[in-house]
Amino acid sequence: MLGSFDAVLLARIQFAFTVSFHFLFPAFTIGLASYLAVLNGLWLWTKEEKYLALFRYWVKIFALAFAMGVVSGIVMSYQFGTNWSVFSDKAGPVIGAPMAYEVLSAFFLEAGFLGIMLFGRDRVGPGLHMAACLAVAVGTVMSAFWIISVNSWMHTPAGFEIDAETGQFLPTNFWEVIFNPSFPYRLAHTVTAAYLTTAFIVGGVAAAHLLGHRRKNRPATAATRTMFSMAMWMATIVAPVQIFLGDQHGLNTLEHQPAKVMAMEGHYESHPDGAPLYLFGIPNDETQTLDYAIGIPKLSSLILKHSLDAPLDGLDTVPDDEQPPVGIVFWSFRIMVAIGFAMLGLGLWSLIARFRGRLYDSPWLHRAATLMGPSGLIAVLAGWITTEVGRQPYTVYGMLRTAESAAPLDAPAVGTSLVAFVVIYFAVFGAGTVYILRLMHHTPDLGESRLKDAVEGPYRAAGITPAPGEAERIKKGAPNAAR
């Protein structure tokens, strides 16, 4: 049955599935690592128990999410050698070094200090423990730095030449490879999205507990109130910043990948006297029209060109075989933008409630915040789909087509592994996610338990070390309890 499918399409679906699962965890842990560092710093500064309680509450969730992110990332990377070996061969000389640096950042910096962050508070002292929290927070951002650099290079390749004999991309300027034209915009937009994702998850959990306390006619704990307040401050401040960064990223995309912007806007036709901003429509690639279109005249030109009458090219200027799938890009972009403005609205709502003294006594605000809890995860997936599908039909934009990047595999082989991934991922990561939700269901309080070691005392790699004098008594044949 799988033989009737296209192997390249199955490989694309497999990579999209695995990277979507993977992306959810770093999108959460990047922001959560920084949040934990802030909580730990506030605890050391103020000695208020609510900050320690929140740290202990969220560090358990962070440990699980971090572990699932690492495992899903390792599995995903193997596909470069199985399903996309041609791409790996051709682009490997350029992207190999940044991806190696990402591994160094993730495993040597993050994982190296993670154990101290999780278990070292009572072992290494407050100063070193705080340094470990900061190292993990910085490590998550550095890991994102290198991965986004590789991804950005695939969108806006720079600093390379193509070997005439092998067809490989060879680096000529390392700094141009890393700081390619779209990298600064993509990095800022993605990392800010991660912080917003964390803020809304934290705010959603806090709001759910505030509603629960209200139903039970009990006062909310100090930790819950603080958690909600910090999350709403983050939403209020960062949401408008993210909208601005998204606009700047869009202008950069218009410069370097105009066909993607045409698909995002649904512009099949060129508009020489100002292009409308389509709010709704059904893209039709066959007829090259946007059916049932509802738009605001000339607003797209104002946003993209800062002039109502500025001309904008449409997909009628792009060959059919170089156009991205408009329907997917059109709708994923609108989902992302809609969620972004919803985040802005919730942030402003919370600000008004805060000034009125109703931040902790506004049930409709809390219901909205609970509903918006997973919105960041949906938005980052929609943004990733917009970016990656909009790059099609290229793997390296304008240089290497996706169909030319795939390994010479038969469809049944790719399809079988895809089915295995779907079953295993939903079983393993589904169970992990359910456990995380169970941890979130528990209300944080001042008596929040900490992560505990598996055994008391120091770990030993060579078994149990005899007590002082015990080894000598064993040699002499003296009886002891252990024997």
Number of helices: 16
- Taken from the alpha-carbon principal axes, the silhouette is globular
Task: Describe the sheet with the most strands.
Answer: 2 strands, antiparallel
The H/E string reads HHHHHHEEHHHHEEHHHHEEHH
In whole angstroms, the N-to-C terminal distance is 64 Å
The class by helix and strand makeup works out as: mainly alpha
Oligomeric status: single chain
Helix content: 55-70%
Radius of gyration: 26 Å
Question: How many DSSP E strands?
Answer: 6
User: How is the largest sheet built, in terms of strand order?
Assistant: 1-2
Mean pLDDT, to the nearest integer, reads 85
Percent strand = 5-15%
Which runs of at least 5 residues are low in confidence (pLDDT < 50)? 453-457, 459-464, 478-483
Protein described:
It is a single chain. The chain is mainly α. The chain has a domain of 226 residues. It contains 16 helices and 6 strands. The longest helix is centred in the first third of the chain and has 40 residues. Keywords: Cell membrane, Electron transport, Heme, Iron, Membrane, Metal-binding, Transmembrane, Transmembrane helix, Transport. This is Cytochrome ubiquinol oxidase subunit I. Belongs to the cytochrome ubiquinol oxidase subunit 1 family. It comes from Pseudoroseicyclus tamaricis.
